[in-house]
Amino acid sequence: MKKILIVIFICINFSLLFASEYSISYVNSSRKDHLLVVKLDNKNYFNIYDLERVFDGKVNVDTNLQRIILTIFEKKCIFFFYSKWVKFGNRNYNLHDKIKIENKNFYIPEYFIQLCNEMFFSEFITLENKNIVLNLSTMKKFLIRKIVLDPGHGGKDPGAVGRTLKLKEKDVVLKIAKEVEKLLKKNLNVEVLLTRETDKFVSLRGRTDFANNHQADLFISIHCNAAYSRKANGSEVYYLSPAKSDEARAVEALENDVIKFEEPDAIKRYTDLDFILYDMRQSEHLRESIELANMTQKLLVNNLGTKNKGVKFANFYVLRGAFMPAILLEIAFLSNKFEEKKLNSKSFQKKAAKAVYESIKQFKEKYDKMN
Ligand SMILES: [Zn+2]
């Protein structure tokens, strides 16, 4: 009997030793925690309420839509009942195993922590073996302190060229960007950087690398439009998303065309797998990008008296690499002789700059208030 008891005791101890859990520590804090791994049907899971606790997150269960929203690091991860997909930003990621529901508890596949570490919250989570280090303290509040203005094209790439005055897009947008810079520096307490200050060529990747390296809070790419039809006119603002309408696709082709000026393997690089990650990083800022796009579009049309072509989305390579809210403006059409004439005038350029400045100001005021 004694022997049996000892054996049982050893077994229990062994099972405890090998009961799986992650140890959690927090940067700049003495707080410690652990995240239990629950075995269900021989698969590893976390109880969603444990995730909520260790991440200082929030769980919302929506039984109508059969989904669970876990908000951590101020971002939403949306799980669907009995599904192996998690929606993050506007993409779905495979968790490899289906979510389980037992006794009103929701169990999330262990792979989720891998996604958090590698894809969703890489700046806040480090994972080594079963040790997780969480950096809750660096969860930065979204304040707008540094703005990168990106005058499109430059150097060997003229961008669109007007039909009558032969006005070049690269020259107009540089003038407008410099005006915006002047207004921002004079009136808002922000740092402003331009991807180019002179008539030089900068690759698309070089533009966003510049903004990322400087850890900019906003990225605004300034362009002028062109169309086959001489009648086409008006202003439009874009944010990043796969292009849907034919018109958006046409503008996208126009702006992405700059690749022909880059090294021979540029197209391959821009379609490379790492851009999937870039897309995701940009989609984190989708809501802010759309908001800024709406503000800017409204102000452009009001200040310039141009036709409102609306806020649209397209797949611009120049926006894909930006890890911050990012928009692309098409101020007016160089291919339209009336708008080309306007774009050539100092007063019109100043009005356009004022509109961009005002929208940044509005956007900044809103987000500063929220923090
Ligand atoms: Zn352009």
**How many separate structural domains?**
2
Rg is: 25 Å
**Backbone shape:** elongated
- Structural class by SSE content: alpha/beta
Average predicted confidence as pLDDT: 85
* Poorly predicted tracts of residues: 8-18
- For the record, the CATH class of the largest domain is Alpha Beta
- Termini separation (Å)? 66 Å
The main sheet orders its strands as: 15-14-16-19-17-18
> What is the number of beta strands?
19
Q: Could you please say which CATH topology of the largest domain applies here?
A: Aminopeptidase
Quick one: CATH superfamily of the largest domain?
A: Zn-dependent exopeptidases
**Biggest beta-sheet profile:** 6 strands, mixed
State the share of residues found in helices, binned by percent: 25-40%
What is the correct CATH architecture of the largest domain?
3-Layer(aba) Sandwich
The percentage of residues in β strands lies in 25-35%
Distinct bound molecules: zinc ion
